[in-house]
Every structure is written in structure tokens, then in C-alpha cells.
Design a protein that fits this description.
The complex is a heterodimer of chains A (203) and B (808). Chain A is built from six helices and seven strands. Chain A has 203 residues and is α+β, with helices and mostly antiparallel strands. The relative contact order of chain A is 0.13. Chain B has five domains: 135 residues, Rossmann fold; 184 residues, FAD/NAD(P)-binding domain; 136 residues, FAD/NAD(P)-binding domain; 58 residues, Alpha-Beta Plaits (2-Layer Sandwich), CATH 3.30.70; 72 residues, Orthogonal Bundle (Arc Repressor Mutant, subunit A), CATH 1.10.10.10. Chain B starts with 6 loop residues before the first strand and ends with a strand. Chain B has a five-stranded parallel beta sheet with strand order 7-6-5-11-24, with helices on one face. Chain B has a five-stranded parallel beta sheet with strand order 13-20-14-15-16, with helices on one face. Chain B contains 26 helices and 35 strands. The longest helix of chain B has 27 residues. Chain B is 39% helix and 20% strand. Chain B is elongated, with a radius of gyration of 33 Å. Chain B is an alpha/beta fold and 808 residues long. Classes of the chains: A alpha+beta (203), B alpha/beta (808). Chains A and B meet through helix 1, helix 4, helix 5 and helix 6 of A and helix 2, helix 3, helix 18, strand 32 and helix 21 of B.
Chain lengths: 203, 808
């Protein structure tokens, strides 16, 4: 049993738990985006940042991947954490301005505009990789991955073509925190979507 | 009910995502009172490490062997739950998830207490299903014995070579065992590509000399029985007509496409206008003519998809020609839509060799004439001419009759006039034992020699991996697979015709009336075959009709008169519902969504049971047409829904009470429209009055759907087969067939009702009395009784010059 503090309250955890898991068990809310219980955490979005304090010394860590340790002091809502969170939201707003989900979440934390330049106003993907992780870890296929490098990164099947490997299970759409997969999956799944004008349901 | 079942229900708060919407304490009270639930607990997060520890401690303490987790979507979370709970003896099938977050918490405007009530209904139904489960024993798969490589294609050698290198035995059936003869005839199947011959010869010699490779020259596959790990292959020898039997653990089919001469309409004469597949060593060693023109005519011949192969071979043959004679003047003329297949170095080589690449306008066909080939230039739209001494056309690619025969024996699937394809199930890899049929070579789909060799190698490696796993005792049989009760199976073969995973085969050699057996390693657990069995001999392990029936019955008993059940398929309806929740959409709270792996595995008896237990309406939401992930399950569901509709009409109920709908995972708004429309229909109808007559009618429908082999047989023989293209004229069957089917149903329905009445009365009844009790026409019942007496189902007794009828 490991004992440590979150927001000055003593909590107990087992070795191997992360700060985020322990906080959630104790009902302490930490915002996340790229974290999903179904897959392994990757610490990509940095939204779950918390502050570790030891006297005058302090550092910020991503709580979803930071393992618990004896006697650490974790703070989830310090000025520094809130500041970082705002910056992250501003960057996300610049990165995927078309995502309604991101806009709404940012608004909840008081961020409505961004000071960064918006390269592509239609972009809604934040490249957190949840979709590729669920495809690999849960579905077991890796039909989609992050294609290209650096600023050209995007989500898709090899060569950005549709692929037979995709079984069209829709896990990526369900897990996507920004809603970007809705349009991407139609380019990935091999069969074109049929337009239904009439359903077999009598009104 | 299974007396050993001990179900634990774990209610997830999901932070505040469920907790603030559903009154979990009230829900806990509801669920705890359920006799099927042995333990109920609320926890902050069931899916995180702390939650798991809480859950597993309860599981070990109370000896829980079934789990219902009420939290979020099973599509994402179930795998993690299964992985984590496996060490606690909770295997696949023993864990069920109810999506409170998506289907109850945010999808409606109910109060937390009302939501708790709705959740309670769903959880109780899931708990009842778990109680009805009889978990199968976890079995290991053993794959032993040699690998049979059949079909005689060139990829046989690369596949066999993989086994030779790994000291694994294999049986190789080929036409000839002389390497030079094999390579010498290769040009007929893979024109050009001589650069691979040297390597291929090495592989062939190595393979033929390996002690692991047992050669079966001139032997052709005649019959195949058994399942993965234990196949028996019968070969017939073409020379001495002897028949031999061999055992094998796995099979690879290696077959090459047959190349035939181009259509004579292109001027093919075999002398000066020839096909690429005519150019063998003999042809190349003859005196080479001056002007050689390759015309890549695949677009014009109607096979644009193979143009890239033809142009590749043309280039390869060109190099062979020019290596022998620099004198020849080679031009390759091709449709502008074909990309030139050359790398930078090859372009340089082509320039040095003086090969001319001439694209022509796609809209105008080139014309072959005496000495000249005219074509429309791309830049100037002028009809140019090129003189020729020899024109080489693209070959036509086909599957040979011999390959087709072998494919049929192997249960491979061939659509009309198409190449062979193995069933490519669009399911998760962990849903099946292995990749299915291993097929290599150009008969699968036209490819280059290089590609065919690679395919053989790949198939060999996949099977080696399977053997390795089996040797290490790590190969388990999947748990959701069909099993045949050989006592009940009469060998009608309906299931085998319907199954397209190739998982069902005959016990023993071919012949009528033999029981079937399921290969658990290839079965994908679609279960439409099980629902189609007229004799209930086929069951889907750990996901049986009995379980589904219990679930639907428990839910139906709890429904209010205006509430409906929506059975949503895991590939269409369920993801649409989950995604609707993801987008924060709301819908009518009267709809109770129950996820099922495929609507095709819903037995008609399940649907009938829902009405019997008081459900006012039930809707099945499957995939879009032609998008089913399991053997046309959605088409089969259509037939079954229609079957119940007919019975409802015959019994005098509204046929609108049941419907089949299609949903796309990415269109949750449409899904909501679908189910809300249905809910409205049912709200306008109300529930079926619970009068004794209605009850007895519904009982008859249920008994008919469940046990009447005659109608079940008729129903399954009308189901769409995997080889069938979309229904002709969009009509599933001719109208007359449908009318006939309806009259059979009416007949059998009446018979069931008569039998039921005679059984409950347990006394001989007169015709008048029967007609009064059943409220049916005397003449109709009279006719039916006459036949029933003839069939020996009821007996007729005369008393005081009046006829009385009784069950024998």
C-alpha cells in the first residue's frame, strides 16, 4: 500500500496505479482527452497535467502515465496547472479548430479563443492516437495508423487509401474525443457507405 | 436455470458520467433484489486498476462465476474486462456489459429514479442471460501431422520450401517432379519474368530433394473431410487411377490462373498475332523478327484491372527478346490510362535498348491491319500507324476447370466468372481460430510470378506459426463457436449451405443424411447457421438461443405497454447507438437497446418468446444491406422477421409489432429516427391484451417457431446463400413461393393450436367444441383434423354417432 497526498488529502494506492487512477477512485476530477480506459495511456495530450510539490521545488507531470509513489504531494488545481491547461487548450484550438467537442471543453475551462495561428480551419483531428491504439489493442488489427511525419501527420490507412484490413467495427469513431474519425472512417473502410433513402420501418 | 451460476453485478459510477444521471443507490436496491444476482456493488470506476481490485476481491470472496458490468460500451471495454478477469476463471461469455452511460444515462430526459428503473430492467435481463449460460470448457487445439499442399500451382514450391527449411513434413501434389519441365511450362501461366527462374529453380530443387517433402505426382484431390488439425484427403492418381488417402493437419491451396488466347476479334492467329503466354523458350530461340509490337489490349478486351500485369510482362519479355537479338525493334503501345511500370534505372535501360513506349488515346480503339497497327496519338489526335512483323497481345486470365474442382472440394468460394477468393470475414481476429483457408497463386487473383511465390511463402509461414503455437500448447479454441449435437442432427445440410466461413463439413465421406461437424478453428461465431437449424441441433456455444431467449423474456416481462426492445447488431445498430451517445443525442426513453453479436443469430423463437412474455414490440437493427459481417446475417434476419410477421397476421395480431431496420455506425441520427419511428408505431398500438385466447395463440406461435421442424426447414431453405448475388429484381422469392409459405404456416399454426387445446383439455373433444374453443371455422378445422388423423397425430373416436378427437 502506498500512501501519498492529492490536494492535501491522504490517499492510498497499490503499486502500479497511476496518479489519475487513484484520483478518480477518490472522486477527484482531472480533465483528459487522449486517455481512455480501454487502451494503455500514452500521455499525448498533456491535459491531465498535475503538479508535484516538494517544499519549494515543484514539477508538472502527466497524471495518466505517472505511477504513484510514497509521500508525493499532488495538486490538481494549482495556478500552474490551470495555466498549462489553458495553454494546451489554446494550442488545441489552433490545431483542430473545427472540433466542436474541443471547443466546448475549452469553454468549460474558460478558453474561448487562441493566440496561435490557425493553419487549417477545417481540421478537427488532434492526433492523439486513441483511434490507432484502440484498433491495435482492442480490435487487434492496426488497420489505421499515423501516416507521414512532423507537421504532415494524419490518421489513415496505409497510403491514405481504403483498406480491406478495416472491418468497419467503428471502435475508432466511438473512442474519438474530437469527432474527427467520423469523416476519416469513411475513407478507411473498404466498402462505400450506401445511401439509404427508405428504411424497413413502417411509420 | 443453472443452479451453479453466481452472478455479480458491478455498477459503475464512471466518475460523474453515470452517477449524476442515474440514481445508483436505487438501482443497487433493485438489482440486489433480483434472485439471479448474488452480489451487487457500486464502484467509482470498474475499468481502472482500483476498480478491478475491488471487483476481483468480491469475485474471489463470494465465488462469483458470472459478471454483469453496468457501465459503458462493451465494444470498447469488454476486451479489457475479459483480459483482466481471465485469471479469475471468468472466461469469454461469462462477462456481460450493460451500457448505462450510453443507453440510459445521457440519451433521454428521464429523472435519475426513472433511469435507475430502466437500468434495472436491462441489468436484470443481462443477469438472467448469465444465469442461463452454460459455459463451455476451455479447450486446446492440437494441430499435428503434415501440411497438404494441393492445387499444383507454382507457389506450392515456395510454400513447401518453408516447411522443408523448418523440418516440418508436407505433402506436395504436383503434375511433374522434373524442375526443368516445371520451369519450362511456366511461361504459359506467368509470361515473362525470366529473371526469377534461377532462384525458382533453386527453390524447386531444394524442395524436391528435401526429406520432409513427400511428393504425390499426378495425384489430384478428390475428397476432403475433417477439421483443422485432422484432415483426411483422398487423392486420385491420373495415371493409374489408384486412390490414396492421407492425413494432414493443415491445407494450403496453391493454384495458378489459366491464361487463354485473346479474342480472335483482336486478330489473334497464333502465328504473327500471338499472345504473351505463347512466348516460351522455343519461340524466343527462333529467328527473331524485326518489328515487334506489344499491344496491351486489356482495356479493350474488358479487363482493365489486369493491364498493369500485362504491361509488366511485356517489358519483361522485351528484355528477354533484346538480350537475344539487338536487331529487333520493339514497341509497346498501351492505353493512356495504364501507368508505365518502370523505375528510374529501368527507364534508362529501356532508352538504351531503344524500346518505344507509345500511349494511345483511350477513346479510340487501335485497329490491326495488314502490316500496320493504327492508333490515335495522344498529343495530336492524328491516326498514326506502326508497322509490325509480330504483334503480341495480352492474354485472358481465367480460373481453370481443374482449379475450380479443387476449390469446390476445399469449400472455397467462387462467384460466377470470378477468381477464387477465401472468405474474408470482417470480424475481429480474436473471434476466430486462424486465418481460414490458405490460398496462394494467381487463381486467387491475377498476380505476377514474384507475387505468387511470395504468397506461397506467406501461407507457409502462417501455418508454421499455427504449428508452433500448437506445439507450445498456446493454441486455444475460440469460445463463441457453433457445435453440432450429433444426436439431433439429421444431416439436412442447411447449415453447411448457409455458412460462409467454411466451418461446417460432413462427418465421413460424401453422401446424404450424414451429420455435420463444425471446425471450431474457422467458425467466426456468426450463428446464423444455428438459428437456421430446423432441428435445433446446432448451438452457438456461450451465446445460445436459450440464453438470448431468457434475456428477451426477462426484459419483456418488465416492459410497460408502450415500451419496446431494440436488438442492435454489434456492427451496425449498436455502434450507431454508442455513437449517438458520444454525440450527446437523445431519443425516446421507451426504447431498450440490447446488443447482440449479429441479428442473424436471433432465432425466430427468441422473437416469438418476446411477444409471449408481453413485449408490445421488437425491432432488430442490423447492418446495411450487403454489409453484414457474418454470412448475410441481416438478410437471414429479414426472413425470420417476415416469418414472425406472417404468424402474427395469421393469429390476428398487428404485423407492425416487429420490424427489421438497417443502421450505419456513422449515422446515429438516422438510427435514432429508425427506432423512434418504431417506438411511435408501438405506442399507437399499445400492448397485446393479456387474454387467455391471446396467450394461447402466442404460445402456439412460440412453439411453432421453436419446435416445428417443417416450418423451420422451409424457413431456412429460403434463406440467402453466400454464393447468391443480390436478389434478382430485389425480390427475395417469387410471390407464389411466399404465398405457399404463408398457407403452410396457417396450416401448421392451426394444427399447433388444436394440439395445444387437446393437450390442455386432456379429453377427447368434438369438432364443434374445438371450433368454439379456438374460435375458428369448423370446415377449416375439420379439414385439418382429417389430415392429422391421416398423419397419425390425433385419433378419432366415435361416440353416439359423433366424432371425438384426442392426442395419441
Amino acid at each position: 500500500m502506498i500512501k501519498f497526498n492529492i490536494n492535501d488529502t491522504e490517499v492510498e494506492a497499490e503499486p502500479g496505479w497511476t496518479i489519475l487512477e487513484t484520483a478518480r477512485q477518490y472522486g477527484i476530477n482531472i480533465p483528459t482527452l487522449c486517455y481512455h480506459e480501454a487502451v494503455k495511456p500514452s500521455g499525448a495530450c498533456r491535459l491531465c497535467m498535475v503538479e508535484l510539490k516538494d517544499g519549494d521545488w515543484s514539477k508538472l507531470v502527466a497524471s495518466c502515465i505517472y505511477p504513484v509513489a510514497e509521500n508525493i504531494n499532488v495538486y490538481t488545481e494549482t495556478k500552474r496547472v490551470q495555466n498549462v491547461r489553458k495553454w494546451i487548450f489554446e494550442m488545441l484550438l489552433a490545431n483542430c479548430p473545427a472540433s466542436i467537442e474541443i471547443r466546448e471543453m475549452a469553454k468549460k475551462y474558460g478558453v474561448v479563443s487562441t493566440r496561435f495561428s490557425i493553419k487549417n480551419p477545417d481540421e478537427d483531428c488532434m492526433l492523439c492516437g486513441l483511434c490507432t491504439r484502440v484498433c491495435e489493442e482492442v480490435v487487434g488489427l492496426s488497420a489505421i495508423s499515423i501516416v507521414d511525419r512532423g507537421v504532415h501527420k494524419k490518421i489513415g490507412a496505409p497510403f491514405l487509401r481504403s483498406t480491406e484490413t478495416c472491418i468497419a467495427c467503428g471502435s475508432c469513431v466511438t473512442i474519438c474525443p474530437t469527432g474527427a474519425m467520423r469523416s476519416i472512417i469513411d475513407r478507411v473502410r473498404s466498402k462505400p457507405v450506401m445511401q439509404l433513402t427508405q428504411l424497413n420501418v413502417s411509420a | 436455470m443453472n443452479s451453479e451460476a453466481k452472478t455479480g453485478a458491478f455498477l459503475c459510477k464512471c466518475g460523474d458520467k453515470i452517477d449524476s444521471f442515474v440514481d445508483l443507490l436505487a438501482l443497487e436496491a433493485i438489482v440486489s433484489n433480483d434472485p439471479n444476482v448474488a452480489h451487487c456493488e457500486i464502484m467509482p470506476y470498474t475499468c481502472l486498476n482500483p476498480g478491478f481490485e475491488q471487483m476481483t476481491s468480491a469475485i474471489t470472496k463470494k465465488g462469483i462465476n458470472r459478471v454483469v458490468i453496468a457501465g459503458c460500451d462493451s465494444r470498447l471495454m469488454l476486451k479489457k474486462m475479459e483480459d483482466q478477469l481471465e485469471p479469475f476463471n471468468l472466461l469469454k461469455g461469462q462477462i456481460s456489459m450493460v451500457n448505462l452511460r450510453g443507453h440510459v444515462a445521457i440519451s433521454n430526459d428521464l429523472s435519475p429514479e426513472q433511469r435507475a428503473e430502466k437500468s434495472g430492467k436491462l441489468i436484470k435481463a443481462a443477469a438472467a442471460e448469465m444465469a442461463a449460460l452454460e459455459p463451455s470448457i476451455q479447450k486446446m487445439a492440437k494441430i499435428e501431422g503434415p501440411v497438404a499442399i494441393v492445387g499444383g500451382g507454382i507457389s506450392s514450391f515456395t510454400a513447401a520450401n518453408e516447411f522443408a527449411r523448418n523440418n516440418r513434413e508436407c505433402l506436395l501434389s504436383i503434375d511433374t517432379d522434373i524442375p526443368d519441365e516445371i520451369i519450362g511450362g511456366l511461361y504459359k501461366k506467368y509470361p515473362g519474368e525470366r529473371q526469377h527462374y534461377k532462384q525458382l529453380k533453386k527453390i524447386i530443387t531444394q524442395t524436391l530433394n528435401s526429406p520432409c517433402v513427400k511428393l504425390l505426382p499426378h495425384d489430384h484431390l478428390q475428397n476432403l473431410t475433417g477439421i483443422t488439425g485432422d484432415y483426411t484427403l483422398t487423392y486420385a492418381n491420373t495415371e493409374d487411377e489408384s486412390v490414396t488417402e492421407h492425413k494432414a493437419g493443415a491445407i494450403i491451396a496453391c493454384m495458378d490462373a489459366e491464361l487463354t488466347s485473346p479474342d480472335p476479334g483482336f486478330g489473334y492467329d497464333g502465328k504473327t498475332v500471338i499472345s504473351q503466354s505463347d512466348i516460351g523458350d522455343g519461340m524466343l530461340n527462333k529467328e527473331i523478327l524485326d518489328n515487334i509490337v506489344f499491344w496491351i489490349n486489356d482495356y479493350e478486351a474488358g479487363y482493365p484491372e489486369f493491364a498493369h500485369l500485362s504491361i509488366q510482362s511485356a517489358w519483361s519479355i522485351t528484355q528477354s527478346i533484346l538480350n537475344r537479338s539487338q536487331r529487333a525493334n520493339v514497341s509497346i503501345i498501351f492505353n493512356e490510362q495504364i501507368p508505365i511500370p518502370l523505375s528510374a534505372t529501368e527507364r534508362a535501360l529501356s532508352r538504351n535498348l531503344g524500346v518505344q513506349w507509345i500511349p494511345y488515346d483511350k477513346s479510340i480503339y487501335p485497329t490491326l491491319q495488314e502490316g500496320y497497327l493504327s492508333f490515335c496519338g495522344l498529343n495530336d489526335h492524328v491516326e498514326h500507324e506502326i508497322s509490325w512483323d509480330l504483334v503480341i497481345l495480352s492474354p485472358q486470365r481465367k480460373v481453370s476447370a481443374k482449379s475450380k474442382r479443387t476449390a469446390k472440394i476445399l469449400g472455397l468460394f467462387q462467384e460466377e466468372d470470378n477468381f477464387l477468393s477465401c472468405h474474408h470475414p470482417r470480424v475481429r481476429p480474436d473471434m476466430r481460430g486462424h486465418e481460414g483457408t490458405y490460398l496462394a497463386g494467381s487463381a486467387k487473383y491475377p498476380c505476377s510470378l514474384h507475387e505468387a511465390m511470395n504468397q506461397g511463402r506467406k501461407a507457409g509461414n502462417s501455418i508454421l506459426k499455427l504449428f508452433e503455437k500448437s506445439d507450445a500448447d498456446e493454441l486455444y479454441l475460440p469460445r463463441m463457436v457453433c457445435v453440432v449435437d450429433s444426436e439431433k442432427c439429421v444431416g439436412c445440410g442447411q447449415c453447411q449451405e448457409i455458412c460462409d466461413c467454411g466451418g461446417i463439413s460432413l462427418v465421413g465421406t460424401a453422401g446424404g443424411g450424414l451429420p455435420r461437424v463444425v471446425d471450431p478453428m474457422t467458425c467466426t461465431g456468426g450463428g446464423t447457421c444455428a438459428a437456421a437449424c430446423p432441428y435445433n441441433a446446432l448451438t452457438l456455444n456461450n451465446s445460445t438461443t436459450h440464453q438470448r431467449e431468457t434475456l428477451v423474456a426477462t426484459l419483456s416481462q418488465q416492459l410497460n405497454p408502450d415500451e419496446v426492445i431494440a436488438l442492435a447488431c454489434a456492427w451496425g445498430g449498436l455502434p450507431a447507438a454508442d455513437n449517438a451517445a458520444g454525440r450527446g443525442l437523445t431519443y425516446d426513453s421507451k426504447i431498450h437497446i440490447v446488443g447482440v453479436p449479429c441479428v442473424g443469430q436471433i432465432d425466430p423463437s427468441v422473437l416469438a418468446r418476446a411477444f409471449l412474455e408481453g413485449a408490445p414490440g421488437i425491432i432488430l437493427v442490423g447492418c446495411l444491406p450487403e454489409e453484414c459481417h457474418h454470412s448475410y446475417g441481416v438478410d437471414h434476419a429479414w426472413s425470420r422477421v417476415n416469418f414472425i410477421k406472417k404468424l402474427l397476421t395469421i393469429a390476428g395480431f398487428e404485423r407492425k409489432r416487429i420490424a427489421l431496420a438497417h443502421a450505419d455506425l456513422n449515422k446515429p441520427e438516422e438510427f435514432i429516427r429508425t427506432i423512434e419511428n418504431f417506438a411511435k408505431t408501438i405506442a399507437s398500438l399499445g400492448s397485446i391484451d393479456k387474454t387467455p385466447t391471446n396467450r394461447s395463440k402466442l404460445e402456439s406461435i412460440y412453439s411453432l417457431a421453436k419446435n416445428n421442424s417443417r416450418v423451420r426447414y422451409l424457413l431456412s431453405s429460403g434463406l440467402r446463400r453466400p454464393w447468391e448475388k443480390p436478389f434478382r429484381g430485389d425480390q427475395r422469392h417469387g410471390l407464389s413461393y411466399d404465398q405457399e409459405f404463408s398457407s403452410v404456416l396457417a396450416e401448421e399454426f392451426l394444427q399447433t393450436r388444436v394440439l395445444q387445446l387437446l393437450q390442455t383439455e386432456n379429453n377427447p373433444l368434438s369438432l364443434i367444441k374445438l371450433s368454439e374453443e379456438l374460435n375458428e371455422d369448423v370446415e377449416q378445422i375439420g379439414n385439418r383434423l382429417w389430415e392429422m388423423v391421416d398423419d397419425g397425430i390425433v385419433s378419432r373416436i366415435h361416440k353416439d354417432s359423433e366424432a371425438f378427437y384426442a392426442i395419441i
